[in-house]
Amino acid sequence: MTSRSLAVAVLCLAVGGLAQTVPSYRQLVYPPLRQVKIPEPVSFTLKNGMRVFLLEDHELPVVNGLALVRTGNLFDPPDKRGLSTVMADVLRSGGTRAKTGDQIDEELENIAASVESNMGETNASLSFSGLKETAGTVLRVFKEVMTDAEFRQDKIDLSISQMDSGIDRRNDDPQGIAEREISGILYGRDNSYGWSIEHADLARIQRADLQQFYRRYYFPKNVMLAVYGDFSAAEMRGQIEALFADWNVEQPAVPAFPAVTAKPAPGVYLAEKSDVTQTFFAMGELSGTLRDPDYPALEVAVNILGSGFTSRLMSQIRTKLGLAYSIGAGWGANYDHPGTFRIVGSTKSASTTEAILAARAELEKMRAAEVTEQELKTAKDSVLNSFVFFFDSPAKTLNRVMMYEYFGYPKDFLFEYQKKVTAVTRADVLRVMREHTNAANLSIVAVGNPKDFGKPLNAAGKLEKIDLSIPPPSAK
Amino acid sequence: MRPRFALFLLVPALLAAQSLAELQKSFEKQVSEFTLANGLHFIVIERHDAPVVSFHTYMNVGSVDDPGGETGLAHMFEHMAFKGTPSIGSKNWPAEKAAMDAVEAVYDRLDAERNKGLRADAKKIAAIQMELEAAMEKADSYVEPNEYDRVVESNGGLDMNAGTGEDSTNYYYSFPSNRIELWFLLESERFFRPVFREFYKERDVVREERRMRVESSSQGKLVEMLVATAFAAHPYHNEPGGWGSDIEHFRRPAAERFYRQYYVPANMTLGIAGDVNPAEARRLAEKYFGRLPARPLPSQYRTQEPVQEGEKRVMVSSPAQPFLILAYKRPDRHSADDAALAVLDAVLSDGRTGLIYKDMVRDKQLALGAGSQPQFPGGKYPGLFIFFAAPSTGHSAEENEKELYQIIQQVKTSKVDEQTLGRVKTKLRAALIRKLGSNTGLAVELCSYYVNYGDWRKLFTELDDYDKVTTEDVQRVAKTYLVPEHLTVAYTFVPEGGAK
Known about the structure:
The complex is a heterodimer of chains A (476) and B (500).
Chain A: H1 2-21, E1 42-45, E2 51-56, E3 62-69, H2 83-93, H3 101-110, E4 114-119, E5 124-131, H4 135-147, H5 153-168, H6 174-187, H7 199-203, H8 207-217, E6 223-229, H9 233-243, E7 267-272, E8 278-286, H10 295-306, H11 312-320, E9 324-330, E10 340-348, H12 352-368, H13 373-385, H14 394-406, H15 413-423, H16 426-436, E11 443-448, E12 463-465
Parallel strand pairs in A: 2-6, 7-11, 7-12
Antiparallel strand pairs in A: 1-2, 3-5, 3-6, 4-5, 8-10, 8-11, 9-10
Helix pairs in contact in A: 2-5, 2-8, 10-13, 10-16, 11-12
Chain B: H1 2-14, H2 17-30, E1 31-35, E2 41-46, E3 52-59, H3 73-80, H4 93-114, H5 122-140, H6 147-154, E4 158-164, E5 169-176, H7 180-192, H8 199-215, H9 218-230, H10 244-249, H11 252-262, E6 268-274, H12 278-289, E7 312-317, E8 324-330, H13 338-349, H14 355-363, E9 367-376, E10 383-391, H15 397-413, H16 418-435, H17 439-453, H18 458-468, H19 471-481, E11 487-493
Parallel strand pairs in B: 2-6, 7-11
Antiparallel strand pairs in B: 1-2, 3-5, 3-6, 4-5, 8-10, 8-11, 9-10
Helix pairs in contact in B: 1-16, 3-8, 3-11, 4-5, 7-12, 13-19, 14-15, 15-19, 16-18
């Protein structure tokens, strides 16, 4: 007992003594950040026109690659929405002329490797990953999938059946509904930016459509390939040159993606869902591209409004009002076409209208008066001090270099962005919010159970119902 | 032809083994560990390529430690850990403290009146509630909102968040490496002298989180009912978020008691990975975390789940498309069969060559997705080996259930072939290699292996355990554990008139 009390006494002394030596965070002085080493990828163009970027990274015995193909689901034909997605799926699962997709699965997984195909809005991708000791095999499979896809019918059927099941499940997740419907409203549903894929579209997709889409877009001049990992760049170059030497198909240059022509559709749109205790909401309008000279100021402004735990939306609606767990905003700029500016959140059914009005009021405040000096400083410091994380892995650098070239951005775009963020003022924040957002033009989507809404939702504007029913396969 | 075939089989079995042995040797040199006098353990992983560093605090406390009637308390403390300290987050700490105590005094009177039950005076309750609102408003007026978060974010802190599970609570973010001392300061402060300010507002936020994750998600509701059914007595019975009414009722003093009991230094492991100097880390650890007083470790005993003596079924009404879960009782992670169960799981559902994917998704097209998970909801105590399926359109949960039994029967009655076993082992090795390339991943993995197995090296040595697993072992654990009397089945069904 005695010794224990003594120990406690000594400990208290020690604690008392130490506590005094601990400073406030305000007193800490940080050494300058060590200069970050930005690796320089090797880039070259193969004889067939394919662009290649290589970056050595010897930390782990793995080799990874990512190819971008200039296409996207923005090129889906209006009567066969979803074609590009099915094509990308079956590109991998449907095998090559020499091997079925199932055989490729076995071959790759036996060596713990992967080849994956994906379709995005403005690019398709084909990626691979493998251990150093079997990199040659993985690269060969990757090349065969890229250049010699067979699109076997059984895997087309599987892909379409899976997408049909996905359509039938699309109203199960309330947040998913809110995100999908706000896109549809902001871009319009008569174009590839805003429409949804329906059963009838999938029913019209034939193997010949896939082959045609594939031939049109998967050709060397339309592909960029980045490879990084544990290899010598000179040897890898030789390997890629030899491997792709026999791929010489040509096609006319791919046109630009269709332009966005949507007009604002202000209003409040309600999707009824009976089995939820929360309302999920999304409100927004079209934003812009990364090229917009106001983009850096907009990014700072929308950070203050709704990014991170210190934003106004978080402070007001979560911390102060306790109305939401999840609430935030993003400017959402894209490389080549206007994105969507959105505020998204969720709240218990009874506070639906209150939370939506409170969120919109925060946007109005951003447009009514300048932010405080501290808010501006926090937002800018947050961007500038975390800038180093753009360079914390060679893969990030490599992907960025390739993305900038894909979309025709200057190599120093990120550094220009950094400079412009540094220069943003309170007046800039107010100006860009006034010029680029309009609280009166917002489209507001709410997904929830209106019988439990406290205050009626039409307090937020003219109410229109969203029809969530899924058109059956036979419908147009 | 035969020898060549055999050689082909041999290659995948050995693949990655040598690379991994070399990696482990060099990796050992990057790792250092130390324990402070108060019991707090640090693991430091050096990776100097980029001037960034990731931090992970692994608290060996989770929802299994929630007191009865106060489920969700571990999760509630996790939220309070972002509310600051006397010196971070307050405009005037002495005044704020007095105002916070006044809130509790009013709340005590409210509870006292409510506790009268039938004889409680509704008017009095309403009047005290008004007082309570006013008292909270006064306390909140001293708050410097979200100051803790602001300091982290404005210093370039990235991906700051936290999570509460059944077995553990985890706090993490990354900083540019010149801000290492700031992390030591902030992280030690919040566990040394947390202030539970804005407690009741945050309780509302936590309640909203439950509405989002559980009440408004058909799968969330299904999983909640699955564990509530499978576990009759052990606290895995409760989801980490807690039950709605408990959240609406627990009080600040309960959360403070929970903190004092479980947030003791010896229950805390910290991982630091990236551009960090171990000697400097040790100096800063002594300076900042040495302040935390040593306290006794809490008991690890939890009500033992009695042996299940027959199948249980639970149905959850939902207009959503069907979902199905089969859950078999299994031992905790220290069981000698743990490695064989992990290999069995990989055979069943890893990648496109897993038995379940090939049979149910690819060939018979019964499911949009299906698979298994070897350890659910946690591993500290005996848990579940689960199978799940999202039936494709035109196919029912019942059909999927039947098919899963077919596959289970198959792994019980016949051995998997050697090629499959070799492939699975290679993939497990390769998965580890790929994990070693990220600061955030390393910080959490090493902490987690240290806490759960006593040594972070288990991250590597568990591969030896996998390597020793034979096809007989896989069959044996399937026969031992995948038995009907230890099964719980949970599925959603569309209520009458509920289908669109």
